[in-house]
Amino acid sequence: MMADHQRIHPVWDPEAASPQKSTAPLVNRENTRSEKGEPIEYPSFRRTIPVVHSKPPKRRCTFCRFLCWTLALFVFLVVALAATLGILYLVFRPKVPKYSVDGLEITRFNLGNDNSLSATFDVNITAKNPNDKIGIYYEGGSWISVWYTGSKLAEGALPKFYQGHRNTTVLVVPMTGETKNATGLIASLQLQRQQSSVIPLDLIVRQPVRVKLGMLKLPKVKLILRCNINVDSLSSQNIIRIKNNNCKKKVRL
């Protein structure tokens, strides 16, 4: 006879099934010291914040692009202008015109009863254009004057004309003038004549000109000519000799 098998059934124990409670005493976070009086350090909690790289504003990029294009255009224009001027120089080989005062004739130089000085001059000016491929237009609106120590003696204007290639033109320019209260001026001229054998005069010319390069006419510029002249006398009864003359020129836009 086989022995009887015993069946074991699990018995539910409510005390074993319930979670065990921790017997460690709870520590109050506000109590920062232990029982021995030592400070308690709690681990600090750190929150990692992701770094977001913001894109630069579009306006700044647009301005930088505009600035770069502007600088590039400026450099291009400078290079193009330099290249054009270099080509023109190689083709035309420009030379500076030369000017000189070759003669001075006084037809009237009288002191009136009212102490006013009346003067009439004829000035011979020689203009030389040494260029082979460049012509010069002397436009209207010129002005020429003769001065002595800051006092204007006479004035006039140059004629309008065109000067061709390798051309020399002699101009006879009439000038007239009247100076009020010229007693001191006449005395200064006489003293200058006694102390020195020359009388210094200044001749000033302001002449609008245009340069012609082949078939191309450049914009109008102003030629300023200043000549220092030494003459032996200022008398309508004598032949006036020019002992020295030095002309300096410059161009203004």
Structure description:
By secondary structure, this protein is α+β, with helices and mostly antiparallel strands. It contains three helices and eleven strands; from the N terminus they run ααβββββββαββββ. Strands 1, 2, 3, 4, 5, 6, 7, 8, 9, 10 and 11 form an eleven-stranded antiparallel sheet that branches. Strand 4 and strand 5 (151-156) form a beta hairpin. The model has no long low-confidence stretch (mean pLDDT 83).
Provide a compact summary of the structure.
The protein is of the alpha+beta class and 253 residues long. It contains 3 helices and 11 strands.
Q: What's the alpha carbon Rg, rounded to whole Å?
A: 51 Å
Secondary structure: helix percent:
10-25%
- Total DSSP E strands: 11
Main sheet summary: 11 strands, antiparallel
Spans of at least 5 consecutive residues with low confidence: none
Beta-strand content: 35-45%
Determine the number of helices (DSSP H or I, runs of at least 4 residues). Answer: 3
Intertermini distance: 142 Å
Mean pLDDT: 83
Backbone structural class: alpha+beta
List keywords for this structure.
alpha+beta; 253 residues; elongated; eleven-stranded antiparallel sheet; 21% helix
Protein topology:
Layout lengths: L13 H4 L40 H35 L5 E14 L5 E13 L4 E5 L4 E6 L2 E6 L4 E3 L3 E13 L3 H13 L3 E15 L2 E2 L3 E11 L10 E11 L1
Antiparallel strand pairs: 1-2, 2-7, 3-6, 3-8, 4-5, 4-8, 5-7, 8-9, 8-10, 10-11
